[in-house]
Amino acid sequence: MNKKSVKDVELKGKVVFCxxxxxxxxxxxxxxxxxxxxAAIPTIQYLVDHGAKVLLASHxxxxxxxxxxxxxxxxxxxxxxxxxxxxxxKVDEAYGEAVKAEVAKLNEGDVxxxxxxxxxxxxxxxxxxxxxxxxxxxxxxxxxAFGAAHRAHASTxxxxxxxPAVSGLLMEKELDVLGKALSNPERPFTAIIGGAKVKDxxxxxxxxxxxxxxxxxxxxxxxxxxxxQGHEIGQSLLEEDKIDLAKExxxxxxxxxxxxxxxxxxxxxxxxxxxxxTKVVPIEEIPADWQALDIGPKTAExxxxxxxxxxLVIWNGPMGVFEMNKFAGGTRAVAEALAEANDTYSVIxxxxxxxxxxxxxxxxRMSHISTGGGASLEFMEGKALPGVVALNDK
Length: 394
Ligand SMILES: Nc1ncnc2c1ncn2[C@@H]1O[C@H](COP(=O)(O)OP(=O)(O)O)[C@@H](O)[C@H]1O
Ligand SMILES: O=C(OP(=O)(O)O)[C@H](O)COP(=O)(O)O
Known about the structure:
35% helix, six-stranded parallel sheet, ATP-binding, binds adenosine-5'-diphosphate, cytoplasm, 17 strands, globular, 394 residues, binds 1,3-bisphosphoglyceric acid, Phosphoglycerate kinase, EC 2.7.2.3, 14 helices, single chain, alpha/beta
């Protein structure tokens, strides 16, 4: 990588504003998957070992510029403290006089976690004033938040214009591994796109159609495409204003010779709940008051076969609502197919996809689990990541 990293700069005695991605899944105040916290440890430990005073900043969820009690980073500070084996103090703000006072008390090797940066409206707007306020806390900026590197926000991009700015070790590793996989992809090259962030991912598909041999669609995303094919989808997830775009993608796939795989059957439910009544139906037979919450077994079989026949697979987004056992079958089938495909280089991206693989105890059988979903997709599309571009060149 042509960007400076923590290894290229003097750290001793420096106050370091280190942006990490602690956007972990939570349920009832408990962290349900700590992959992203663990992934940030090497950089934090490196900073500690080299005598820096470490300020950690992250977002959690999408609080939209307001304080949302359930999105405080307090549970993360507690878990981080256990993982690091040292006290991690947490403040309830992310900049300002009170925070400065805490920073002034730090000794070399101390770690202080700031509050969720998305509690401030300026964060996502990349407000230069907020970026300056963050920068005023520190001597050096380290970006280790690969998962948020595709966002040009005050703590991921703006701040880098006010301080010396370098990458963390996780950021460096992600860019290295993904870059190598993509520079000359082995073929057949397959992308599997699922999950629920329809708006974010639908644009990515356009670019992927230029690169891949097979494109597999699953998860909540799929039903906008199913609707575009002319089928009724009942209460399933739908992005109404993306139906025309979905049609265009299917046409483009055909023109480019990209094989486009969509669900042929689905597990449907009469409500969004673990206790729902469920059945498996062909994709064109979803009743009006039911919703599709997983791909069906026939679809899972077809997808597994495509995976077996691929040399490189990038997977982003679960095939169904895997958090509920009744709707985990499709995601499990895809994960197992990847685990069993010994000749296939598998790259898993996205917090939820990583959590799913972890849940099925298949994590160590994947070639690379990226901490970034949207970020890894944008990188693989060949887009510049603003959080990386803003760092100092070597
Ligand atoms: N058919 C579906 N309907 C509604 N939600 C779904 C469906 N399939 C998957 N999901 C949800 O998508 C979420 C993950 O979406 P997303 O954040 O886009 O993935 P990732 O974090 O892997 O990038 C999961 O919480 C899952 O429950
Ligand atoms: O979870 C994240 O993205 P991902 O679900 O695409 O992996 C990152 O923390 C970025 O979060 P955002 O998509 O709310 O900007």
